């Protein structure tokens, strides 16, 4: 109920007057022409990303359950396209082995591989022969180190899928964001991958899609018990807040999926399965895949609150720049 109330407030104060008129006309035209609606949020300040815009609620419905809602923040860096080649697009899956979650990483890896194998099997006498449209690479277990991640990205990839933990800490007057890399070789002393370093990797070799399936990869604020939101906002400034997902977008990556809240383990598994089924099996665009993910997580949250967090369905945030990536992900490759 609290989410609905906040959604009503957001809609009432943003979608109003001329914007509301335009919105209603757009709905009418979409029905007439049989077209989908894309709501593109042009965000001028990083700080405004703390607002859960995906909660827009009107006439007993969340808009993001019906329409594509993407964030398109302002950035001086143009979208960088990988140089054309005849090579297959490369997908790099990084399982950063969060403590106690290695099974989930293996499950996610197997889900992706199974979808690839089922989708791209050749209809030949050798039924085990597989012809992938993608080159699938993975870094998990003992291989999952800071150095190995850097090497793989510098070699050039098209899709980055990072599954692990993200963290935000206040150091002095600044907030510092980084990913935690738990290696099986040294589980008690995890490495830290600062988001600034990941930005450098992405600038060195432009990619087409980054999936940051990591808690806090788009975390708004560092919430603490018994501390009011007002006090946290007072301690922060417009320059203090830093979105990991938005940071990659600023390097020229045209499409980034980040997590605005902590996501449950079952929720992360559903996200992985539904995302790849949509863009690999059915060749749908990424923004359509996000709607399917939201609806599935929302349905689970309504029936099994013990496993899926009530906020899981609004946790995936889609940042998108470039018209070709709205038209369709597979065709853009």
Task: Report on this structure.
- With 333 residues, the protein is an alpha/beta fold.
- The protein is 38% helix and 18% strand.
- It is built from eleven helices and ten strands.
- It has helices at residues 2-14, 17-33, 102-119, 146-155, 195-204, 229-235, 244-250, 265-281, 286-303, 324-327, 329-332; strands at 38-41, 68-71, 90-95, 135-139, 159-171, 174-181, 191-194, 209-215, 255-259, 316-320.
- Strands 3, 4, 5, 6, 7, 8, 9 and 10 form an eight-stranded mixed beta sheet that branches. Strands 1-2 form a two-stranded parallel sheet.
- Strand 5 and strand 6 (174-181) form a beta hairpin.
- Helix 3 (102-119) packs parallel to helix 8 and helix 8 runs antiparallel to helix 9.
- Mean pLDDT is 78; it is low at 222-226 and 324-333.
Overall 3D shape: globular
How many strands, what sense, and barrel or not for the largest sheet?
Answer: 8 strands, mixed
Low-confidence stretches: 222-226, 324-333
Mean pLDDT: 78
Rg, Å, rounded = 20 Å
User: Span from first to last CA?
Assistant: 41 Å
In what range is the share of β-strand residues? 15-25%
Query: Structural class from helices and strands?
Result: alpha/beta
Q: Which series of helices and strands comes N to C?
A: HHEEEHEHEEEHEHHEHHEHH
Report helical residue fraction. Answer: 25-40%
Quantity of strands, as a count: 10
- Count of helical stretches: 11
Features of the shown structure:
10 strands, disordered C terminus, eight-stranded mixed β-sheet, single chain, 11 helices, alpha/beta, 333 residues
